[in-house]
Design a protein that fits this description.
heterodimer, A: about 280 residues, mainly alpha, two-stranded antiparallel ribbon, 13 helices, about 55% helix, B: about 325 residues, alpha/beta, 10-stranded mixed beta sheet
Chain lengths: ~280, ~325
Amino acid sequence: MAIEFLLNKQNPDGGWPYLHGGSWTEPTVFALLALLAAGETARSKRGIAWILRTRRSDGGWASRPGVGESTWVTALAALIPEESVGQAAHAAAIEWLLPVKGEDTTTLFCLRQWLLGRPNSIDEDNPGWPWTPGAAAWVGPTAMAVVALEGEHKRRPSARVAARAQAGRNYLMAHMCSEGGWNHGGAKSWGYDAPPYPETTGMALLAAGRVRSPGMERALAVGRKFLTETRSADAQNWLRLGLAAQGELPQGYAAPQGIAYRTVPEVALSHITALGGLA
Amino acid sequence: MTRRELIAGAGVVVLAGCSSRKTAPRPQMVSIVRAPAYDQSIYDTVRRMLADHRLNVRGRSVVLKPNLVEFEPGSSINTHPMLVHAAYEAFRAMGAASVRIAEGPGHRRNTLDLADAAGYFHTIPGFEDIFTDLNVDDVSPVHLTRQLSRLGKLYLPNTVLGADLLVSMPKMKTHHWVGATLSMKNLFGVVPGGLYGWPKNVLHWAGINESIVDLHSVFPRQFALVDGIVGMDGNGPIQGTAKAAGILVAGSDPAAVDATCCRIMRIDPSKVEYLRLAAEGGAQIADAGIRQTGERIASVATTFALMPAFRAYRIDNS
């Protein structure tokens, strides 16, 4: 069913939309990962061709073609197996990711804050990744970048890659909500505690690594609670991936009945999750 | 008829991006109507409000842009789905060729799930077929006309760029960054998260108040219908407290509508930075520039609690 849905949704240009319309990088990557996992080669090739065609000269990918800058979706493109996308494209994606960091952790920003007498709570040594260059770091893009770099380090051990992934994990731990779990990254607003979200909690658990600490125990408890409560397909997918990565997904877990899987990423990730996750 | 003649009642389309005006602009009509609860009477109330504004949408495309923020059915965070449905039905009855509902939430990526949890699927028949997720819609580049912010160029969703009339339908809320979030700030939801992320942080880095005004100037064909039946005060737009004001506020000039809402909330609109910037560009926020109809402000005004940083915005302190 999932594969049929994805095949039907593939655009003539080889990419995928989120739901309708033109092709975007994020749904194309997730659809490709699902098709590759299912052994669907012919349509995968068209998708890979789209990915290679839309690669930018700086080694990254824009969120969709025609938009003039590489963004966080480069981390997603780096999840495509090297043997499918080619060593050069994969290596360039990793190289693009490594130096990118939130604008709020740049030396210039920190200096400006210091000169203005504004206390900067951002840890310069542990930067996260922004959605788009020039903006602050957030949990979602940081989690995806860490997953991509961790995968790269497993394939090709590198102290540089490992260190950057660890800095990203430190960013995630520092941005956990006080009750456990994660929202988009604003754990506090005007001194008030902000609540975690199911989907970002799943993403961060996927990236956080199997460390155990009081904070991580709170995050796992929140993740397990969200898993039983959420009726969102996106949240179910990420929570399953995150809890599985932590070894905390209940054995034989099946998502509740009646959840609507509507978008290409939702359907693709559900399929990927069922097959064991983002390898 | 050209597109700019669409809003016949207003007579003049307010272009916030225009340079300073040499002649006194015509006062903008803003209507205030009591609506004590989210019940079936809203349908008739909205129909009458739109009729009063003499909107001519026959054969035109209309996009309704509610404010969808969080998964909290029954809370005062999101624009109530019944109000959106009432507007949908009213514009259809007025002969609009198409009416779509469109939103791009700023924090949560799973828009349809969010809409479902907020009651939109339950309240609006065939919701999925008439809804566009603006976060992942097809986009076109737009060069901003006012350039108060550092944005320069934005990619915006084709669904809203192609609309003959964009109807901003915010919740009446205080906001911990800008004081009040109303129909102008509601347009942050048209900026596609698929390109700019969740939250749409580029707007913050470019200057929140300046971005509100720049974005507003992209859409000269707007109507504002504010859900003030139950709004939010305190630490809005998410963590505040439900605040019943029992009103709907509407008009063809979002700045004038927002200024009126501020007065109802007992906030001085001239102290709200984005309204002040809009006024510098010719928007009508002063009493003299607004032709109030329906309820008088004094009869419906109710004090919305403000975060400490915004207490100087209180009308009593002005």
